[in-house]
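=== RUN LOG ===
request id: a7f3
mode: sequence -> structure
chains: 1
length: 318
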Amino acid sequence: MMFAYSHTDESSHETLNRRTLLRLSMQAAAGLALAGLPRFGRAQTPAANPTRSPAVTPKFQISLAAWSVHRLFYAGKLPQIELPKFCREQLDLGGLELVNSFFPSPHYHYCRELLKKAADHDVRILLIMCDAEGNLAAADAAERRQAVRNHRKWLDIAAVLGCHSIRVNTGPGDPQDEDALQRCAESCAALCELARPDKLKVLIENHGGLSSDPRAIVKIIQYAKDPLLGTLPDFGNFPPAIDRYEAVRQLMPYAQAVSAKCHEFDADGKEIRTDYARMMQVVLDAGYNGWVGIEYEGPDADELAGILKCRDLLRRFQ
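=== RESULT ===
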């Protein structure tokens, strides 16, 4: 049985008050429209790609997952507020996926400043990847309710930033633990209820724990029975025993975003660990035409160089 989540459960010391924030979000709606920032990233008009003829419509769009620059960020060389400029001027990309741990402040005025930076550089903020906000599959119901409450502020922030989704983690555990999958589904369904007024989606990425097996992710979605719950397939992150191409194929029917994990490249610009021609065919065969986010995690200290290699590789398949 799904546990109830009440608006009155929210503690008074939370940084963002939902009612106040949503009122301010409505005031910001006109600004969002003028900035051309869409709600959903799955089938938006793609940004121009200078490597292609203007008459050719790309098969998908390329965005940057902020985690790609985590070393620059943690070294203090690239603050989150400058990521839209980085996307446009260094990468010529029009989409950005944020990480909750990069936020120096979740305050409304900071979010509006970040949104303005994105609009100034014609960059769409697509989603927020949420980590370290509690276990959505915890055996204890109170712990699960707290995890849902912890994620709630990121839904509020995503609404202000014009995102289409937040990404959540399933929690630790055995992917074959049916009780844990049911508990995670209940938590995700509760989050979807909170996301519904702002037309946001809640996405599950293969990111360890219960999500190590694509079949477990599919079960969670089926148990939740909510169309707002989807997937964010990552080309990596699966255990060695899992066929990553087949795993991504299983997740693609529910995909609202895709994470192009990349590490190292050969002399021809091909990714060493993943056959991108094969993987991108899996993505395209599913009828997906939205955003594919670059997530560079290679050993090269020059994160920009790695990101550019991944971008150029992805452009071969557009």
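=== NOTES ===
The chain is about 40% helix and 15% strand.
Residues 141-161 form the longest helix (21 residues).
=== END ===
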